[in-house]
Design a protein that fits this description.
Elements lengths: L2 E5 L3 H13 L4 E4 L2 H9 L4 E7 L7 H10 L8 E5 L6 H8 L3 E4 L4 H12 L1
Parallel strand pairs: 1-2, 1-3, 3-4, 4-5
């Protein structure tokens, strides 16, 4: 089974998400910023999907998604935007930036698992 890369600058979020995913049988790697994320991607780990926090210092998700999608080695990876921004229009903005799907925080675990199942089958 391919692994999940969680990119979020809040260690509480990465800890909680990775704990839930590991309990469900997934392997999860975490990155606190885009530099760490690209290091993990380049390490040869079998990443199957990216869960990306949109609002991060430095490079935010809106800038990162087009980078993933324009890089030949990563453009096939589904990117799921995970964000506390759940206002009307935020989902559309994430999708327009290139995200494959969107999950609002606090994360609905059942919804997230359904999305993961869809993209990792």
């Amino acid at each position: 089974m391919k692994s999940i890369l969680i990119i979020d600058d809040d260690s509480r979020n990465t800890f909680a998400l990775s704990a839930v995913l590991k309990a469900k049988g997934y392997t999860a790697f975490t990155a606190n910023n885009m530099v760490e994320a690209f290091a993990i991607l380049e390490s040869g780990k079998e990443i199957g999907i990216i869960l990306l926090d949109i609002m991060m210092p430095g490079m935010d998700g809106y800038d990162a998604i087009p980078m993933f999608k324009s890089t030949p080695a990563y453009k096939h990876l589904p990117v799921i935007a995970v964000t506390a921004h759940a206002m009307q229009g935020d989902r559309e903005k994430c999708i327009e930036a290139g995200a494959d799907d969107y999950v609002a925080k606090p994360v609905d675990v059942d919804l997230l698992l359904k999305i993961l199942e869809e993209y990792l089958k």
